[in-house]
């Protein structure tokens, strides 16, 4: 029998090597893992934060709508690329969007639930006291809430202060316990967060300050085959239209732009110019690896999740989507290859950073923080964790922060030009592949419309 310690080591090693999410890595290592529970709440894991949160609430209300169908109903995949430069600490951070309307969490949630036929109440109270009271009232009535806390302020990801206000992703707050709330963030155990910390995290980002969605999935609409088929078709049409747009920030041309920026020596945002001295490059490459791979906080490039949704939709709609699903699985592999080329294991510093990232994720998502797993530690506060991060993750976050600062000062990458040229070529190939796949999807949806 595999000991718990051995199991943790194997899951972490797989996450670091493959870039898989905790849920996927655990599924490969553990034969038929049983769902974990906390009282009446069952943890279902998941990949993409928004669709996993909706699927978790529905599943805990007895409605079997899987994450792939929720994701597809919301329009499936998206595209987006922004390279941020911060003068206060000299850091560079890459923001990648892989979900439809990735920049609008609340709009995406509303349209997804509408298509699924799931009733909901959206709270948009801007005042901190009102937002806190609304969350408490819903939890007191036994209704789980989907909220959007800032990752640094919520504490349990172990992020450095330099990422304060960078944003976050949807999580489920499913009950309160004294001065704490308990969170499901695609793991297998409850994450305990002080209520005051959650309130502050929800209020941090102005664009979705204190937004909260409470699902009211009464009635059979969300699991009716006709409704699911309609949601799937609307999602496919949305995906085809959205990804056919001309935007270089929020649609497929973003990948072509990114490919150009990797080798553009004249543009102020070109990588050869931004990283001329190598400073901040390692941090940007880490954010690329975390953004593309499922081990990251946003679920990765999500092309595999979209493929799962296409397979389900094909059966519901009697559409030939199997080949297209297979193509998006291949494209998922192209993204993985890009991440491996950007942040390879054969660079010792990168290998260690990958191992530490996997350690933090596995520790948190496997053990949660309820039940005395968190310790008071000065390094926890420095990492934004307070007393809600497991001690093993605190140690990992502290070492990761120190290592990142060191490699950002002196890049371990030897030939920057060769790296940028190789990544540019890979991105151009991804852009071609996704453009062709989306054109095929558009033709299928149009054919269905004529039918």
From TrEMBL:
What lineage, starting at the top, does this entry show?
Answer: Bacteria, Bacillati, Actinomycetota, Actinomycetes, Streptosporangiales
Q: Which organism is it from?
A: Planomonospora parontospora subsp. parontospora
Q: What name is this protein filed under?
A: DUF4872 domain-containing protein
Positions of the Butirosin biosynthesis protein H N-terminal domain = 48-185
The protein's superkingdom reads: Bacteria
Pfam families in UniProt: BtrH_N, DUF4872
Q: Where in the numbering of this chain does the DUF4872 domain appear?
A: 268-342
